[in-house]
């Protein structure tokens, strides 16, 4: 158990809908990272937050947004969903130091039908 | 842009064999991490190496960081079916803050 929790575990929704994925980091970790992993692909970095502020952006679509709340949990919002958004979404946390280790949650499997 | 290339992409071996997977870059990293991921689950951190030339052993797994801190290898001795999974390397650099650059992974299958 990494100490990072993600909910829900599975999510099935229709195209055009909006969903929210939730992540709680390890106790003491200030930084949260979101990744997307499609079938047969590696981890694609989406966005990072540190202590409530956006720190880095990767290949995140404009239809996607995220935030980190004062209690350090984070939410990833996906809107106007398309079939191609079906993937595993992982949250990871770290202390936020350069080169620091990241600890991953169990992921949310999103299926868009 | 920093890139990490892993090889081989796929590896299927018999139980008891030895194997090595590689992680290479043209960029220098301040740290290099290895993760193992099983289907449908999150990656699990195996080891972090930070010093050029560093070697770390974790039971049957040996990790090495290149002298120039641009590459790393993972060697598994006497592989077991439980070693099956996707092995990911990830590099951290001072210029990237705490963000990691991930390789595409090596999918290892150990057949009984």
Keyphrases for this structure?
heterodimer, A: 113 residues, mainly beta, 4-stranded antiparallel β-sheet, B: mainly beta, 6-stranded mixed β-sheet, 5-stranded antiparallel β-sheet
Put the structure in a nutshell.
The complex is a heterodimer of chains A (113) and B (112). Chain A has 113 residues and is mainly beta.
Write the layout of secondary structure elements.
The complex is a heterodimer of chains A (113) and B (112).
Chain A (H helix, E strand, L loop, with lengths): L4 E3 L2 E4 L5 E6 L6 E7 L6 E7 L2 E5 L6 E5 L5 E5 L8 E8 L8 E2 L3 E5 L1
Parallel strand pairs in A: 2-11
Antiparallel strand pairs in A: 1-3, 3-8, 4-5, 4-9, 5-6, 7-8, 9-10, 9-11
Chain B lengths: L4 E3 L2 E5 L4 E6 L6 E7 L6 E6 L5 E4 L2 E5 L5 E6 L8 E8 L7 E3 L3 E6 L1
Parallel strand pairs in B: 2-11
Antiparallel strand pairs in B: 1-3, 3-8, 4-5, 4-9, 6-7, 7-8, 9-10, 9-11
Could you characterize what this model shows?
The complex is a heterodimer of chains A (113) and B (112). Chain A is mainly beta. Chain A is built from no helices and 11 strands. In chain A, the strands form 2 sheets. In chain A, strands 2, 4, 5, 6, 9, 10 and 11 form a 7-stranded mixed β-sheet that branches. A 4-stranded antiparallel β-sheet of chain A has the order 1-3-8-7, with no helix packed on it. In chain A, a hairpin with a 2-residue loop joins strand 5 and strand 6. The model of chain A has no long low-confidence stretch (mean pLDDT 94). Chain B has no helices and 11 strands. In chain B, strands 2, 4, 5, 9, 10 and 11 form a 6-stranded mixed β-sheet that branches. Chain B is globular, with a radius of gyration of 13 Å. In chain B, a hairpin with a 5-residue loop joins strand 7 and strand 8. By secondary structure, chain B is mainly β. Classes of the chains: A mainly beta (113), B mainly beta (112). Chains A and B meet through strand 5, strand 9 and strand 10 of A and strand 4, strand 5 and strand 9 of B.
């Amino acid at each position: 158990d990494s100490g990072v929790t993600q909910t829900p575990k599975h999510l099935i929704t229709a195209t055009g809908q909006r969903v929210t994925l939730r992540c709680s980091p390890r106790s003491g970790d200030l930084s949260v990272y979101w990744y997307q992993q499609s079938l047969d692909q590696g981890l694609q970095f989406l966005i990072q937050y540190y202590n409530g502020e956006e720190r880095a952006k990767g290949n995140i679509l404009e239809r996607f947004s995220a935030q980190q709340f004062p209690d350090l949990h984070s939410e990833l919002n996906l809107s106007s969903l398309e079939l191609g958004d079906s993937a595993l979404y992982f949250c990871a946390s770290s202390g936020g130091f350069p080169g620091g280790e990241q600890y991953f949650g169990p992921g949310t499997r999103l299926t868009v039908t | 842009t920093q890139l990490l290339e892993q090889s081989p992409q796929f590896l299927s071996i018999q139980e008891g064999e030895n194997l090595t997977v590689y992680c290479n870059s043209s960029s220098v990293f301040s740290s290099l991490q290895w993760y193992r991921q099983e289907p449908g689950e999150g990656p699990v951190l195996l080891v972090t190496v930070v010093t050029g030339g560093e070697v770390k052993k974790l039971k049957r797994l040996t990790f090495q960081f290149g002298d120039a801190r641009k590459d790393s290898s993972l060697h598994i001795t006497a592989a077991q079916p439980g070693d099956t999974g996707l092995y990911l390397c990830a590099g951290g650099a001072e210029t990237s803050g705490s963000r990691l650059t991930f390789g595409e992974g090596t999918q290892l299958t150990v057949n009984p």
